[in-house]
């Protein structure tokens, strides 16, 4: 959380970060001490802001975890984001989209570009969708994401896997890229 905070604050924006994890909030506060950055713990909807409070909302790698909760007890996060945006407010999203029916392993169920567009369509007009990064993980990395969190030499494992992924990317050909598992997208949407 808060990876874009300093860049936005440096450009004169007041930044509000919301997360369900107290640990992530505390980490973001330690990294970002500007009085123009505020971090709020909120474990449920509605968000703790009045309607129309923001002109811009940025969501980075969060909505992919909430896509399956639409209409469930978590409420509809997309309509809630629209509620806190002013009329004509902008929603900027960076998310992972599946190209193969598979995800990176960190999300219960993968979502496609079309899934995000559909989820936004009730409250937003999608202006632009761009692919910004493509990936296909090695089998070792896939296994690590599923089972490696308990490894005693976690840092060594991460360094080893980074070398393996880099080697695979450097040796990639067009057929490899066509078979990618997932890619990251940037979506710009405007509140209706």
Compile the SSE list and pairings.
Elements: H1 5-10, E1 15-19, H2 22-31, E2 37-41, E3 54-60, H3 63-66, H4 77-84, E4 85-98, H5 113-121, E5 124-135, H6 139-147, H7 154-170, H8 174-178, E6 182-191
Properties at a glance:
192 residues, alpha/beta, Rossmann fold, 2 domains, 4-stranded mixed beta sheet, 8 helices, 6 strands, globular
Written account of the structure:
The chain is α/β, with parallel strands linked by helices. The protein folds into two domains: 1-43, no CATH class; 44-191, Vaccinia Virus protein VP39 (Rossmann fold, 3-Layer(aba) Sandwich), CATH 3.40.50.150. Helices cover 35% and strands 28% of the residues. The chain has eight helices and six strands, in the order αβαββααβαβαααβ. Strands 3-4-6-5 form a four-stranded mixed sheet. Helix 2 (22-31) links the parallel strand 1 (15-19) and strand 2 (37-41). The mean pLDDT is 81.
Low-confidence stretches: none
Structural class: alpha/beta
Give the integer mean of the pLDDT values: 81
The total count of helices amounts to 8
Write the CATH homologous superfamily of the largest domain: Vaccinia Virus protein VP39
In percent terms, what proportion of residues is strand? 25-35%
> What's the main sheet like?
4 strands, mixed
Q: What is the correct CATH architecture of the largest domain?
A: 3-Layer(aba) Sandwich
* Spatial order of strands in the largest sheet: 3-4-6-5
Helical content, roughly? 25-40%
């Amino acid at each position: 959380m808060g990876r874009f905070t300093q860049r936005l604050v440096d450009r004169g924006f007041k930044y509000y970060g919301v997360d369900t994890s107290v640990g992530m909030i505390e980490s973001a506060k330690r990294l970002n001490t500007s009085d123009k950055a505020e971090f709020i713990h909120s474990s449920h909807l509605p968000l703790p802001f009045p309607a129309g409070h923001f002109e811009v909302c940025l969501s980075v790698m969060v909505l992919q975890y909430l896509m399956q909760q639409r209409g469930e007890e978590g409420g509809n996060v997309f309509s809630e984001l629209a509620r806190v945006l002013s009329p004509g407010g902008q929603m900027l999203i960076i998310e992972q989209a599946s190209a193969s029916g598979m995800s990176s392993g960190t999300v219960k169920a993968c979502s496609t570009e079309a899934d995000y567009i559909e989820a936004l369509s009730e409250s937003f007009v999608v202006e632009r969708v761009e692919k910004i990064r493509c990936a296909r993980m090695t089998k070792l990395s896939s296994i690590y994401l599923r089972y490696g969190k308990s490894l005693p030499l976690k840092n060594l494992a991460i360094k080893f896997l980074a070398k393996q992924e880099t080697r695979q990317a450097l040796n990639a050909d067009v057929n490899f890229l066509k078979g990618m598992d997932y890619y990251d997208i940037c979506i710009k949407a405007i509140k209706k």
